[in-house]
């Protein structure tokens, strides 16, 4: 007993002198415009919605704990985001025939030295084919301690088994065209300007920028990029002469683009693979350049053929420009039809 009485004060003193370091904290900001929880959508009319999530991360003790070092956002899709063409006899289909996509590193960013807290708004798009997307947000501090939060976005398309043409609505942002060395603004860096045509996946500039460790894998997903020069907006193949794809090398794809004389009513009637192919064949490159469109105008229909070396191989399709908004931020709304 006397021994314990002597030792206890020493233990209390030792505890008082020991620095307790807690893990960093990360939480979603709850608001009507931000996604902060998992959700399930069942529909036949699919929109690749421009969604947003806001996170706030901080060192547990802003004064004494280690600074935050890295912010990482990943996307895991099960099954693949690419639409599936199911067999006529559905009983012959095996789920194992449709793999999951490799993990997509959306953002992997080192934070400024001494960062103790950070708020970040992430713009993203929902999937357009049936399945589940897991979005995970992770912050790491200087000691390697982490905090992580995630949510699942599930889509159940009621026309998955019957549709032979994949359809969705997409909302583009834009990045500047040309070879200017001027850095992008924060809004341009987050603009959802890079589209995978088969998946309806839109990526922001930071996902394909030189600072992203997985830039090559992300760039290889891109079929089209929306660019701006003043008030002029165009859609371009990543092989065309544009600031944002200069230096991409083998990650670029030659997506061919043809102007058409089709109207919005004609577009609705493109319900078969054969019609999509014939629409492309009947169109023509703008001024002999098949790698970019003419300046975008509301109501125009553009036919396309994705590259054989691109994601999923060569596929015919068409897109209808349904709206153009230039201020306060650029938003190009288009309806897309593409072969499965």
Automatic annotation (TrEMBL):
This is DUF4249 family protein. The lineage of its organism: Bacteria, Pseudomonadati, Bacteroidota, Cytophagia, Cytophagales.
């Amino acid at each position: 007993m006397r021994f314990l009485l002597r030792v206890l004060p020493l233990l209390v003193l030792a505890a008082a002198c020991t620095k307790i370091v807690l893990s960093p904290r990360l939480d979603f900001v709850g608001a009507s415009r931000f996604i902060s929880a998992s959700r399930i959508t069942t529909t036949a009319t699919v929109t690749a919605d421009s969604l947003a999530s806001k996170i706030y991360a901080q060192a547990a003790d802003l004064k004494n704990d280690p600074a935050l070092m890295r912010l990482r956002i990943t996307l895991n899709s099960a099954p693949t985001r690419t639409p599936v063409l199911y067999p006529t006899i559905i009983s012959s289909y095996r789920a194992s025939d449709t793999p999951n996509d490799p993990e997509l590193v959306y953002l992997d960013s080192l934070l400024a030295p001494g960062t103790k807290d950070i708020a970040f708004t992430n713009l993203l798009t929902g999937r357009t084919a049936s399945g589940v997307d897991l979005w995970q947000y992770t912050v790491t501090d200087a000691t390697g301690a982490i905090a992580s939060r995630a949510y699942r976005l599930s889509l159940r398309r009621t026309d998955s088994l019957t549709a032979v043409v994949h359809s969705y609505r997409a909302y583009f942002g834009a990045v500047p065209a040309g070879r200017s060395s001027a850095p992008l603004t924060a809004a341009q860096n987050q603009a959802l300007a890079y589209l995978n045509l088969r998946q309806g996946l839109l990526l922001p500039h930071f996902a394909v920028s030189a600072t992203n460790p997985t830039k090559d894998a992300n760039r290889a997903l891109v079929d089209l990029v929306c660019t701006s020069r003043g008030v002029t907006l165009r859609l371009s193949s990543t092989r065309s002469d544009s600031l944002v794809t200069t230096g991409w090398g083998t990650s670029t794809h030659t997506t061919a683009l043809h102007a058409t004389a089709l109207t919005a009513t004609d577009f609705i009637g493109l319900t078969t693979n054969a019609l999509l192919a014939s629409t492309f064949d009947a169109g023509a490159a703008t001024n002999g350049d098949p790698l970019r469109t003419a300046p975008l105008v509301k109501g125009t229909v553009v036919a396309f053929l994705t590259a054989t070396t691109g994601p999923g191989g060569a596929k015919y399709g068409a897109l209808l420009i349904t709206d153009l908004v230039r201020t306060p931020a650029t938003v190009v709304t288009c309806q897309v039809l593409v072969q499965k």
